[in-house]
Design a protein that fits this description.
Layout: E1 4-7, H1 17-32, E2 36-39, H2 53-64, H3 87-99, E3 103-106, H4 110-122, H5 138-146, E4 152-155, E5 162-167, E6 171-176, E7 184-186, H6 194-204, E8 209-213, H7 220-230, E9 236-240, H8 260-265, H9 270-278, H10 293-299, H11 314-326, H12 330-337, H13 350-357, H14 366-370, H15 382-388, H16 392-407, H17 413-427, H18 431-443, H19 451-455, H20 460-473
Parallel strand pairs: 1-2, 8-9
Antiparallel strand pairs: 3-4, 4-7, 5-6
Bound molecules: glutamic acid.
Length: about 475
């Protein structure tokens, strides 16, 4: 069987990272099986469209490297790939169902439907369309259409039918049709509903596997009824577990889940985002392997996606970002850091600094924070300095260290470190406290790359000046 899968986003907003995982799993499944990855834009819910979101969705896919084989922009044999350009098709298939007696016109007003729903709720019944229009005669129907009454087309759901499928991820699932509404296929604006268009398109686009989030499980029986009504083969379904926030509620922007583009702007590498996303449901070893998209194509086994809902844990993203940063060459990392540096950033020792910071960076943004001390005018927080210089021994040590710094003939880290170390050991002074103070004064922050290596990237004069200024201030 040729594997053909699709990612079918609705351009109703910019999806957060959890939604992009669906695209990643589909893409990996396609590539692993030498199949095709198709993008279809599902834009039939006209009220919910958000301008620009289609472009953003495509930008997200490009950013993480999920290139498609067929879509509105690269073409393909099964287009158009945007649902709003396929309206005639849907109408044709809806008419076929009406002719077969499996669908019907419904002229009920929204007010009536609300009334019915309220009544049912009052009686403790599940709200469902009461089939008021099911038995309209052909003549009645024609007349109402002629009068210009707005209508929808509904599917006649078979009564009391068990609908089963063997889900690739969830295992065997059975849902009884008793709980299903006579769903709308074509809305009063002439657009199809998601549930209708998705079936027509998956069939016409020869989709072999429908792989999507578990939130669509309850829609799948409606889809299967439609496949059966048309006499079409039913594709294989797989529903990915739902990603939860740390509070176990469905992951949302409220949990701080952002889009891939937001994370990239915050200094996360697309490679790390992919590595993080793949473990939101898929399992491999202890789920911490640092893997590239290329390696993932080989390794990705859809049967290793578990049903258990994964928890979104930002510390895992940080871990993968740190690891992917470490795996870059200095040259690659420098290039990636540059967009996060201000225009006036002094780049003299960039490669050396990148080397010093590389093992300490969580995001690309960290580099600037860690190396702000390279600005000749950089200053630490005076209150912090005061705090660190409370101990007279620290002050005494700094006076001596300043002396060592001005007298060493070689301006290089080892010599200075050895001399300072000797001074501290000889006097039995508190090393941690003294290094902390020196770090803060010279490198302006308590967290920095290695002290002496960084210090010697500054001029001797600046280092002496910073120590003197600090001593003067107390
Ligand atoms: N358009 C649906 C969405 O945005 C796709 C659902 C499906 O994959 O069938 O989530």
């Amino acid at each position: 069987m040729t594997v053909r899968v699709r990612f079918a986003p609705s351009p109703t907003g910019i999806p957060h990272i959890g939604n992009t995982r669906t695209a990643l799993f589909n893409w990996l499944f396609a590539k692993h099986n030498h199949g095709k990855f198709i993008i279809r834009i599902e834009d039939t819910d006209r009220k919910r469209l958000v301008a620009n979101s289609q472009a953003k969705i495509m930008e997200i896919l490009d950013t993480v490297g999920l290139r498609e084989d067929e879509s509105f922009r690269v073409g393909g044999d099964y287009g158009p790939y945007i649902q709003s350009q396929r309206l005639d098709l849907y109408r044709k298939y809806a008419d076929q169902l009406i002719d077969q007696g499996q669908a019907y016109y419904c002229f009920c007003s929204p007010e009536r439907l609300t009334q019915v729903r309220k009544q049912q709720q009052k009686q403790g019944l599940m709200p469902k369309y009461d089939r008021h229009c099911l038995n309209l005669t052909k003549t009645d129907t024609k007349q109402k259409i002629k009068q210009g009454l707005p209508y929808v087309i509904r599917l006649k759901i078979p009564d009391e039918l068990d609908i089963s499928w063997n889900d690739l991820i969830q295992g065997p699932v059975t849902i009884n049709s008793q709980n299903l509404d006579d769903q709308v296929l074509i809305k009063s604006d002439g657009y199809p509903t998601y549930n209708f268009a998705v079936v027509i398109d998956d069939y016409l686009m020869k989709i072999s596997h429908v792989l999507r989030g578990a939130e669509f499980i309850s829609s799948t029986p409606k889809h299967i009824i439609l496949y059966k009504a048309f006499g079409w083969p039913v594709p294989i379904f797989g529903h990915f577990p739902i990603i939860l926030g740390p509070d176990k509620a469905k992951l949302s922007k409220r949990h701080g889940a952002k889009s891939v583009l937001d994370y990239v702007a915050e200094g996360y590498l697309p490679e790390a985002l992919v590595n993080f996303m793949v473990f939101l449901g898929w399992h491999y070893q202890d789920n911490s392997a640092v893997l590239s998209l290329k390696q993932l194509i080989d390794l990705f086994d859809i049967t290793k996606v578990r049903k258990t809902n994964p928890i979104f844990d930002i510390s895992k993203l940080n871990y993968f970002n740190k690891e992917h940063i470490k795996s870059l060459t200095i040259g690659q990392l420098s290039q990636k850091i540059k967009p996060f540096l201000p225009h006036d950033y002094p780049e003299t020792n960039l490669a050396k600094l990148v080397g010093l910071c590389q093992p300490r960076m969580v995001t690309l943004k960290d580099f600037f924070l860690l190396t702000k001390f390279v600005y000749p005018t950089a200053k630490p927080d005076p209150a912090e300095v005061k705090k660190r210089l409370k101990d007279p021994i620290v002050i005494k040590a700094l006076v001596k260290i300043r002396e060592i710094i001005s007298q060493t003939d070689k301006w290089e880290p080892q010599t200075i470190e050895e001399n300072v170390q000797k001074l501290i050991t000889d006097h039995n002074w508190p090393k941690g406290k003294i290094y902390m103070a020196l770090r803060l004064i010279v490198l302006i922050r308590p967290v920095t790359p290695p002290l002496f290596e960084s210090m010697t990237l500054l001029s001797r004069q600046i280092v002496i000046q910073r120590i003197s200024q600090a001593l003067k201030a107390v």
